[in-house]
């Protein structure tokens, strides 16, 4: 995939092309960045951790210190597949999301091996309040975040993973669970900037440190990986035009900060 330097100009160009048939942007109210994280607490967020009811922040997994959302496991004992997610309180459809993350500390040794230096940002997710206590992953699209393992091997970040979903990639429905991006490999203990441009059920763009690293379209329900969900929620083939944004916990300590969103909802078409 061709890789190039990303800019806000390109973001708006992508958006302008998308809305050419749907409508026009209101010129009197240009989009603005809005912070999703106030730097003080997670009162605007909803916790859902596997084996626990929605709202139970087991082990103080998600905590705020030094204006950072920190994901930690020091109160866990056995990890016991207690995969967790921290959801912003409202769904979004068309938007530009940006955030910074870094991997820190020691991986929880009782977590699955694949979770080493691994986290993610979920989007177009189902409402966490629709998840049974024993559902492991939300039906969603994931911008997977990885760090290098210090072995000189390539390990890109900003990949796409699809718990209970599928996407159209390179012109065809791709049922692969994870699709690699073209990003550089970034070792842990450093801040990395991630961005998502999500245009409803149309084009989705992943950006890492200013580089466009992956694009695909038509996110939809389907595929496997998710277990013990409510069958009424998993309607295979249904396009996902909106959903919740969530930060992931799956065994590796990770920090998130500077989480901001720009609304790119197209204005109604002129009659």
TrEMBL record:
Keywords: Signal. Pfam families: 3keto-disac_hyd. One of its GO terms (molecular function) is hydrolase activity. Residues 32-261 form the 3-keto-alpha-glucoside-1,2-lyase/3-keto-2-hydroxy-glucal hydratase domain. It comes from the Bacteria. The keyword Transmembrane does not apply. Residues 1-22 form the signal peptide. This is Uncharacterized protein DUF1080.
